[in-house]
Automatic annotation (TrEMBL):
CDD domains: xylanase_inhibitor_I_like. InterPro entries: Aspartic_peptidase_A1, PEPTIDASE_A1, Peptidase_aspartic_dom_sf, TAXi_C, TAXi_N, Xylanase_inhibitor_I-like. This is Peptidase A1 domain-containing protein. Residues 1-20 form the signal peptide. Gene3D superfamilies: Acid Proteases. Transmembrane segments: none annotated.
Length: 425
């Protein structure tokens, strides 16, 4: 009789254990997250509103694809019941790679404590860096099933830095409070999401779909855009190369215009031992930047292929401009001009760029090639900028280190503006 009730008790315990387990499985099913990003009119930078602190507050951040961490200014109006500072030599400091002991001589406040650890934070537009206090607070982000917003989920101890407000300067959009880094670094937003939710290899993925009102996904496909199109199928793939600074590079082996090879210095196209050369992707540069000799070859070649269209005086910062009226025949993917192909690691893997991603109306009536001369001493020879990435899905697979790319979503009759941000319970 006694053993019978023990058995009953055990089976009751195991039932509730299974219930608990399946509940935690349900939470684990939240394996995809989403941020809405909009483009700032004045600076062309992308801004994401992120929920931080307790009670939660939506704070605007500039999105830096290659940024190492999230930094925010804490000097004014930082009210949160969950702000914590890891002590110098703590595991959090080790995880963040912060080996500098931070002290502060003013009154204690968020960003100002003694015996904490300091970490450099950078304004990616000016390159200016400053020391900030490593801190922890709640960060909340919307889950998604691939379309619509699901419940907000909390990361209770998100690591970031409290940077001095001098880093904000005027070059960043007016209301912005900091920068959110998505780089391949220990405490970037992408890395902390992957490790907190223990996302499996399949889902440790960051996907950018940039446009005026675009979207960033964390987690694997599918990603649905109105009217119900999964924009992740099909994609082309090329290896991702991670620089020592945790920045995202790809290998561009050659460039073709109208299916003809543009003569280029191959040395410049590959990254050398000192991390110079190669092709980087960046959300901070509004337009693609080409090292001077590549810029000259590409623009001269393009002009030759466009011989029947009269050039006009170039508008800064561009080098080649023409009369919009002469190319006003448009297709779905922008003006009818020759395509530009980036030939990647394999000659059969090509990122085709259509006019909508490289012809920009610089002033009314004048269209320009959206490439900027980077001069002779660029670190990366090609920096693929935001205009060229717009309305393309770019899926950074952080486990397999490969980049999936869709080319222009206009071909799928959709765009990155078409994510449905209506919240579902
Ligand atoms: C840090 O220590 C110094 C020296 O002991 C002290 O003057 C200062 O007020 C302390 N700062 C804070 C934020 O407690
Ligand atoms: C190609 O670029 C490399 C690196 O800038 C330079 O040293 C070399 O002289 C260039 N080659 C030619 C043929 O211009
Ligand atoms: C996950 O990724 C790591 C590192 O790339 C690899 O070593 C491991 O085999 C992968 N695991 C699975 C299940 O694919
Ligand atoms: C967005 O999603 C909501 C909720 O599912 C739906 O009612 C609405 O029709 C959707 N909007 C569009 C434009 O598809």
């Amino acid at each position: 009789m006694a053993s019978h009730s023990l058995y009953f008790l055990l089976s009751f315990l195991s039932v509730s254990y299974v219930t608990l387990l399946s509940e935690s499985r349900t939470t684990l099913k939240l394996n995809k997250f989403v941020l809405s990003v909009h483009q700032d009119d004045k600076t062309s930078l992308y801004v994401a509103d992120i929920y931080k602190r307790t009670p939660p507050l939506q704070i605007p951040f500039v999105v830096d694809l290659n940024g190492r961490l999230l930094w925010v200014t804490c000097e004014k109006n930082y009210f949160s019941s969950t702000y914590r500072v890891p002590q110098y030599h703590s595991t959090q400091c080790a995880r963040a790679g912060a080996h500098y002991c931070h002290t502060c001589s003013s009154k204690a406040r968020p960003g100002c404590h003694n015996n904490t650890c300091g970490l450099m934070s950078m304004n990616p537009v000016t390159g200016l860096s400053a020391m900030g206090e490593l801190a922890q607070d709640v960060l909340s982000i919307h889950s998604t099933r691939g379309s619509n917003l699901g419940p907000l989920v909390k990361i209770p101890q998100f690591l970031f830095t409290c940077a001095p407000s001098l880093l904000l300067q005027t070059v960043l959009p007016g209301n912005v409070q900091g920068v959110v880094g998505l780089g391949h670094s220990p405490i970037s937003l992408s890395t902390q999401l992957v490790s907190y939710f223990r996302l499996s290899n399949f889902t440790s993925t960051l996907a950018l779909c940039l446009s005026t009102n675009g979207v960033i996904f964390f987690g694997g496909s599918p990603y649905y855009m109105y009217p119900g199109i999964d924009i992740s199928s099909p994609l082309g793939y090329t290896p991702l190369i991670i620089s020592p600074q945790g920045e995202y590079y790809i290998q561009v082996k050659s460039i073709k215009i109208n299916n003809k090879d543009v003569p280029l210095n191959a040395t410049l196209l590959s990254v050398n031992g000192r991390g110079v050369g190669g092709t980087k992707l960046s959300t901070i540069n509004p337009y693609t930047i080409l090292q001077h000799s590549i810029f000259k070859s590409v623009t001269e070649f393009f002009t030759k292929e466009l011989s029947d269209i009269p050039l006009v005086k170039p508008v800064e910062p561009f080098g080649v401009c023409f009369n919009l009226k002469s190319i006003n025949k448009r297709s779905r993917v922008g003006p009818r001009v020759p395509n530009i192909d980036l030939v990647l690691h394999d000659q059969h893997v090509v990122w085709r760029i259509f006019g909508s991603n490289f012809v920009v109306e610089a002033v009314p009536g004048v269209s320009c090639l959206a490439f900027v001369d980077g001069g002779l001493n660029t670190r990366a020879s090609i920096v693929i900028g935001a205009y060229q990435m717009e309305n393309n899905l770019l899926q950074f697979d952080l486990a397999r280190l490969r980049l999936g790319f869709s080319s222009s979503l206009m071909f799928f009759k959709t765009s990155c503006n078409n994510f449905n941000f209506t919240a579902l319970p």
